[in-house]
Amino acid sequence: MEINMMKQDAAETVALQALAWLAANEDLMPTFMGSTGASAEDLRTQAGDPVFLGAVLDFIMMDDAWITAFCDTVNIFYDRIMQARQSLPGGAQMNWT
Question: Taking the domains of the chain in order of start, what are their residue ranges?
Fold first, then answer.
């Protein structure tokens, strides 16, 4: 299956929406912060960092239910999150595990 690449600014917009969605999710946000080691200050200072935004998308893509919930909330197609991830730093790397 071929994935269409999106421009980095569009990918960053999707990732910022994902970060806002996470921040509003009282159940999932602590899991994200615990698994990444990010502090509240890190969220504020790194929100504009494409590498950090890629990590946000990586986290959400760990669970199909999270992908569905996020995409349904912001009204985007489910594959847009993968397209956004591939357009951010580190997203083009293949992971065979």
Answer: 8-87
Write the single-letter amino acid at 36.
Answer: T
Query: Residue type at 72?
Result: D
Does residue 61 contact residue 85 with C-beta atoms inside 8 Å?
Answer: yes
What's the pTM? 0.85
Question: In this predicted model, what pLDDT tens digit does every residue of 7-59 receive, in sequence order?
Answer: 989 999 999 999 999 999 999 999 999 988 888 898 889 989 999 999 999 99
Q: DSSP string spanning the chain?
A: -PPPP--HHHHHHHHHHHHHHHHH-TTTHHHHHHHH---HHHHHHHTT-HHHHHHHHHHHTT-HHHHHHHHHHHT--TTHHHHHHHHSTTTTS----
CA count, 13 A, side-chain hemisphere, 19: 23
